[in-house]
C-alpha cells in the first residue's frame, strides 16, 4: 500500500523524463518509448504530478486509430490532433511542484486526475478537451494538469487500483445522473465486465436500483460477485426471451448501454413506456438499425453521454474514500510495454481495467 502523502524536494526534479509518444495515426508501431522527454513545467494555475500509475482506456486506442475523425484528420470530439502526443487519461500520483504563484501546500498531496478540461460549462461539457488528447497525459513519469483537475484523495488502495476508477466511473456516474436512476427502479446494463460497465453496476447498486446485466459467458461469475443476481450471457441470444425463461420481469426503467451495434434494438425492446435509454459507447458498432416507432409509441427518452462533470468526478472520489467502490484491476504492464498493454486491452477478455506503471522517477 502506498502512503497517502509523499513530501518531495522539488529542487531535485530531473530535467528529462521517460514517456510513450504517440507519433501518428495507425497501429501499435505508432507508440514509441523515449527516455529524453523534457520535464513539463507547470504554468499558471497548474501542478506537476509524479505519476504512479495510469489506466488504459478505449479513448487511447480510438485516438491512435483516428476513429474520432472523418478519415485520419481528428481525434477526441472531432478536434485537431497534434503529434507527438503523450496519451493517458487516468493518472494517479503525487504533486511534486506547483506554478510560481501556486499553493506550495499542495506539494506532497496524493491525487487522482480528472482528465476533463472544461471550458466554463462544467455540466454541459461544451468545449470539452481531454488530458492525453488535447494535451499530454499520464503515460509518462510526470504530467502537468490544472490544479483543479488534481483531486486530493486519501485511500489505502494502491496507485494501480486507483487508476482503474476516474474515467470509467465518472462516465458511469454521469450516465446514471442523466438517466435519473432512482432507488427501486430496474436497470439493464450492457458490457457489464468492462471499465464503464462494471462501474455502472456498482454505482447503480449504490443507488438502490435492481440491476440486470449482460456480459460474455466467461465473465458472468465476476459480475455476480459484485452483487448482481441476474447476469445474462450475450451468447444466449435475445435478452427478453432469456429473462422470460428465467421468470424475471422484462420491463426496465433504464437501459445503460456502452456497446451499441446490433443489440440496440433488443435493448430498446426491454424498456417500459416512458423508459430511458442512455448510452456512452459503441464498441460493437457505431451504426445501428432500430424500429423508430418504438421511440414515439413508448415515449422513450434517448440520452447520449460523454465523460463526466467536475461534480461527477468529486462524487467518485467521495465514494472511493468511503470504501463504497471496489477497484477491478485486470492487471498491470510496465509503461515500456504500452503496445502490449493496448493489444491485450483490445482483446476484451478482461474484467475491469488494465493499468500501466511508469519507472520510478
Gist?
This protein is of the alpha/beta class and 361 residues long. 23% of the residues lie in helices and 26% in strands. The radius of gyration is 20 Å and the shape is globular.
Describe this entry's structure for a reader:
By secondary structure, this protein is an alpha/beta fold. It has two domains: 10-164 and 327-357, Medium-chain alcohol dehydrogenases, catalytic domain (Quinone Oxidoreductase, Chain A, domain 1, Alpha-Beta Complex); 168-304, Rossmann fold (3-Layer(aba) Sandwich). Helices cover 23% and strands 26% of the residues. It has helices at residues 58-64, 159-162, 166-179, 195-206, 220-224, 239-246, 264-268, 293-297, 310-321, 338-347; strands at 16-22, 31-38, 46-55, 90-98, 110-113, 116-117, 129-130, 142-146, 150-152, 186-189, 210-215, 230-233, 252-257, 271-279, 301-304, 329-334, 353-357. The strands form four sheets. Strands 3, 4, 5, 8, 9, 16 and 17 form a seven-stranded mixed beta sheet that branches. Strands 12-11-10-13-14-15 form a six-stranded parallel beta sheet, with helices on both faces. Strands 1-2 form a two-stranded antiparallel sheet. α10 links the parallel β16 and β17. α3 (166-179) packs across α9 (310-321).
